[in-house]
TrEMBL record:
Residues 140-202 form the T-SNARE coiled-coil homology domain. Keywords: Coiled coil, Membrane, Protein transport, Transmembrane, Transmembrane helix, Transport. Gene3D superfamilies: 1.20.5.110. Its main location: membrane. It comes from Spraguea lophii (strain 42_110) (Microsporidian parasite). This is t-SNARE coiled-coil homology domain-containing protein. Residues 171-205 form a coiled coil. It is a single-pass type IV membrane protein.
Length: 233
């Protein structure tokens, strides 16, 4: 149980909320901790970059503390802050150096030393060194060959992909052209069918007109014959 919270609850006194704002040295400590976390990287070049960053930060901190003036009653507090910050800087610097040494000891492999007791004569030592050199050169040539083959395969795959893209684009364009042709043919067929229907209608109208004209001619002839016979009597 939190005794302070219980006191506030029983006494009815409002709890005073105090939020502490970050000071300049809080920010410096956070930056130092960030660098300390970054030291865990697995790359030596990154460690060199972190070392440059740490040196730059150390110089900036020195310049900052040199430019700050404090009153006598605050000197002890100020010196305590300086001690804590420089102590942390020293710890991070030492950890960084240890980390660099780990990389150096891990990656550096010394050539074995040869003594006269190991070989019958100088020619034997020379042959051993030449054999090692030949083996290393073979491994190196094999790596180069594999890299060249990989690059060639990568280029071939890239060319094939480009060809596939071109073929796909052409097929899409041809498909659109075929669809346009089909649409045009449908429109032409509709127009032709409409024209044929109109021609049929015109032909039917002409037939009906001829029939009516023929009937009209027969009527006129009949009337003329009737009049002729009527007046001739």
């Amino acid at each position: 149980m939190n005794i302070t919270d219980e006191f506030y609850r029983i006494s009815g006194v409002d709890k005073i909320k105090y939020i502490r704002e970050d000071t300049f040295y809080d920010t410096i400590i956070k930056d130092i901790e960030n660098i300390n976390r970054n030291i865990n990287v697995m790359c030596y070049n990154k460690l060199i970059s972190i070392e440059d960053e740490l040196e730059k930060m150390t110089k900036e901190i020195n310049d900052l503390f040199s430019s700050i003036g404090v009153e006598n009653e605050l000197k002890d507090h100020f010196n305590g802050i300086k001690f804590i910050i420089f102590k942390r800087l020293g710890n991070v610097t030492k950890r960084l150096e240890d980390r660099k040494l780990e990389f150096i000891n891990k990656n550096v492999e010394l050539e074995p030393e040869y003594s006269k007791d190991n070989f019958l004569d100088f020619d034997d030592a020379k042959n051993v060194v030449e054999d090692q050199y030949d083996q290393e050169m073979k491994v190196y040539e094999q790596e180069i060959k594999m890299r060249d083959e990989y690059e060639q395969a990568r280029k071939s795959i890239s060319e094939i992909k480009n060809i596939q893209k071109i073929i796909t684009v052409n097929l899409m364009e041809q498909g659109e052209q075929i669809e346009n042709i089909i649409k045009k043919n449908k429109n032409i067929k509709k127009n032709v069918d409409g024209t044929v229907d109109e021609l049929k209608k015109i032909k039917d109208k002409r037939r009906r007109s001829r029939r009516m004209l023929f009937i009209l001619q027969l009527c006129v002839i009949f009337i003329l014959l009737f009049l002729h016979f009527f007046y001739c009597k």
